[in-house]
Structures are given as C-alpha cells and as structure tokens.
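input
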Amino acid sequence: MASPYGFSANELWTLGIAAYAAVVSTFVLGWDAYKWLASGPKIDLSVSSGMKRFGGPVPDPNTYVSVTASNVGDRATTITNLGGMYFDSWWRAYIVRRNAKEAFIVSQPSDGQRLPYRFEVGDQWIGLAEQTDDIVRMTKDGYLFLILYTSGSGRGHRARVSVREKNSANA
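output
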C-alpha cells in the first residue's frame, strides 16, 4: 500500500503564504467595499417645533418648525426640496414608508439659503416651516415627518416632528 502524499518544507511554506495572502486580500476587498458604501454626503437632520423669530423691523407673531441639517459626509450635495409626509399608522410610517395619507412641500423654507442650495461638507442649513393648526393636528393624530431631499438620495432624509405642549406661563 502506498503512503499518502507528504508535503515538503518548501510546499508547506508556499501553502501558508498563499493562505495568508488569500485572507489579507479578502479583508482588503471587504474594507474597500465598506469605504465605497460609507462614502458620500451624510446628512444629520433635526427638527424643533414651537420656534419663534425675533429681531427684524416687523415683529413676527407666527410659530415655526425649524429644520437643521448638517453635512457630515465626505462629499458635497445639493438640497433640492423640503417636504413633509403624514402617516396615520405606525406600520406605514416606519415599515412601509410609502403611501402617506397627506404630503406637502415647503415652498421657500430659508430666506438666506435659498433652494436649490449647494451643501458643502461641514455646512449647516436651517429652514423654517410655519407651525399651522394642520401641523399640530398631524403630530397629535399620527406620524408627521419633514423630509429634506438632496440630489444624491431619492427617498430623502427624514425626521419626525413632535409638537411640545405650551406651558401655562408662556401661553
């Protein structure tokens, strides 16, 4: 009976180096894929309700919902639109994310940073939408999101709006 094939020392070294190279190249390929997926503009979005405007020649009695966006990615983008979507159920708001009961566009959310706005890395953009009775109703009855649309993302970046109750001292 013939004995099984035995590896020489040179063949063992070659096999070990090849296995090491395969592991390292697989890791590098995975790392490059991660970098490619993680690159581009990244938008941090926050929404604050009950905001007032102070200063200026004419007092403004309106209350606003403020949208603050920061580009924390590694590439610039363009803000194209600010809109909103109202969902009447949790399932549609968080799982389906389509078929909103009501949708709207804020025509000119910022006087100083007019749309379309070139959104460079590290920049901050602030927009305002008037806090109407409809906005308050939508936040109380369901799920209202303000959505910032940019040139690179089809679905937009969204943040949920919640309206704070007025304190009796401020009312």
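quick obs: Residues 83 and 106 are 5 Å apart (CA to CA).
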